[in-house]
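Fold this: ElyC/SanA/YdcF family protein
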Amino acid sequence: MRRIRRIHLPRTRRDRRRAYQAVVALTVLALAPATWMNAAAGPRVRSVADAPAAPVAIVFGAGLWNGAPSPYLAHRLDAAAALYDRGTVRAVLVTGDNSRDGYDEPDAMRAYLLRHGVPARKIVSDYAGFDTWDSCSRAHRVFGVDRAVLVSQGFHIRRALALCTAAGVDSYGVGVAAKHDVTWAYGGVREIFAAGKAAADALLRPDPHFLGPHEKGVAEALR
């Protein structure tokens, strides 16, 4: 029969103080990436109405429902269409996941924008935006984007701004409003844990999962 080890709590005041200091130190270390992310990106979060002009809007994928954009993704695309309609941007780069058969975020995003008045020649698709760092890195290195307005929900936009800035894209972000439901709560909690990876990506700047050759789609859309 296996013996169950007992957890011994600190008994002396000195041991309790050391345990408390260790917990505080670990908490600070855990929250440091999120603090950096919010401090670096906060001043650059805007609305559709006051976003500064830029050549391109970058819209990040947010899942599909039965092959169509999820409600969260649809809200992002609505904001991108509004930016184009206002003349704030002259082209839209949709970046998402197309890593498996039957799942194609960029084409679904493109179809949605077409239905909402954005001309086909002004929409560029990135099929290898597997995560936020890949989308930002590929936007700069593959598509030649140097300046952009990023579009995502408020809980994600600061991480996108921090990563795109690190990738070489001078960015402002539109934080799209979202209903405070279970998805919103999950997204907020997820960002706390994702901040650590974001800090590592910003520091180390790894190659995206798929780099590929330079593409002229954005340059052609801007002509």
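The longest helix spans residues 13-41. Residues 23-31 have pLDDT under 50 and may be disordered.
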